[in-house]
Every structure is written in structure tokens, then in C-alpha cells.
Amino acid sequence: xxxxxxxxxxxxxSIAKSNWIHAVNILEHAAEEFPEDPxxxxxxxxxxxxxRRYDKAIACYQKALTVKPNxxxxxxxxxxxxFAVNEYRMALAYYKQITDQxxxxxxxxxxxxxxxxxxxxxxxxxxxxxxxxxxxPFIYFLLVEQLIRINKYDEALGYLLKAEAKLGKHKHxxxxxxxxxxxxxxxxxxxxxxTEYEQLTNITNEDHLQAFAICARNIGKFSKSIExxxxxxxxxxxxxxxxxxxxxxxxxxDDLPRARFTINNAxxxxxxxxxxxxxxxxxxxxxxxxxx
Length: 292
Fold this sequence. Notes:
about 0% strand; Serine Threonine Protein Phosphatase 5, Tetratricopeptide repeat; mainly alpha
């Protein structure tokens, strides 16, 4: 029996590369012929998972679990499928049932907890994990991101420095460092970190561009700040905070024509001016009258 099933599984695996539906049909027949062996169901689940048919994959894995109860691998892959469809609490329920809580399982649990807003519990798991695995950048990323969410900036910076010492320069570590320094209002340090990050990658996230621009403004680098905000606006012309920040800078450097131009662009891009933009527009109008 074992050799027969082994041959079927090998054949199905080969066929799946070119015709996965046919492979599933073969495995369905195998599951009926050998109901006491879960491998046909597991192979079907793997194919469905690879094709992102996660509901079907879960069904196969759960059926296999009835044949092979409490199997760690099945618990893990079912958890991963639920994770893939944003069913985070279901994913966590399966991860918790795994007997061998290895680093990969712990990381996935911490990630799920982060997604459902259980930041402190996530942090507790990751700090435990770092004692086991301290050379994986993604563990540090997740830990620092959670610490930032609960405003533990000094602790976040401490782990960032440890990560840099262990792993060297990494663009995401630089971004996180810039974010932490920005929250601490260490504007020059944040600007330096953002600048190093910019040298490693093209910044296309409007929030990162705005944060970089605010750092530049706060150390008097207005031209750089204006350049960054204009780039962010070109990416998302419907983001009103970008127009507000750009208008403030033009007012600060007493460039009222460009401030007015920015307000006019905001009028075209937005359904209406925000209260802040209206207030800034009134300030521009009042300053123009005083200059006359």
C-alpha cells in the first residue's frame, strides 16, 4: 500500500507543475483509496495553498488533522492559511496548539498579535525570541515597530543600535531610526538617518517623505523640505496634510506667492479646503494686505 501511495504522490507532484487541477483529481482519488493516510490530503492542501485557494487548503488540512490529530505541521500550515486571509485570531488559535514552539512559530504568533493590536504581548514574545535568534533583521523590525506603537522610543532606539551592531547598515533599520528620532524630536539625527536611507533607496511612501520634510524644516533646510513635499504631492495629490505643511513652509520663509499657489493647487485637488488650509489662506491674505 505504502509504495502504491508513494508512487501516486510522486506522480501528482510532477503533474501539478503543469496541470494542478489534474493533480488534485488524482489526490482526491488517492484520499478515498487510502483514507487512513493523511498525505494525499496534505498534498492537496499544499497545492491549494500555492494557488492561494486558502479556503480549500484549510479544508484539506483540517480533514488531514482528523486522521493525524495534534500534528504540529498541520497546525502550522492551517495557521498560515488563516493568516493569509486575515483571519488573525484563528491563525493564533492554531499557532498556540503547536507543541514545538520553535522560533518560526513564535515569530508568527508575535506578528499575529501585532496585527490584532496586542502590542505588549507581541513585544514579550519577540524579546523572548531575540534571545534564541539575534541575527534576523525581521525580528528586530517587528520588535521596534511595536515599541514605537506604544511610545517606547528609548527602548526602540536601544534595540535599533543593537541590531545595527549585529547586522550592519540596513535600509529599514535606518528608516526606523529616523522614525524614532523624529518622535523624540531629535531633528538633526532624524534628518541624518533619513538622508542615509534616501541614499540606499528611492523614497516613494508619502508618509516617509512628509516625516523627512518635517525634519528638514526643523533644522532650517527649507529647500530640501519643499522638494520632499512636492515629491509626496506628486505621488498623492489628494493628501491635505502635504498641502498644509508646504503652505506653512512658504509662509515661514515669507514666500507668499508660492504659498498662495499651493493653496490654489489644494483647491483643485481636494473637494474643499480643510480648516487649517482656510486659516493659512486667511493669513496669506492678511499678510498681503499689510505689504500693500
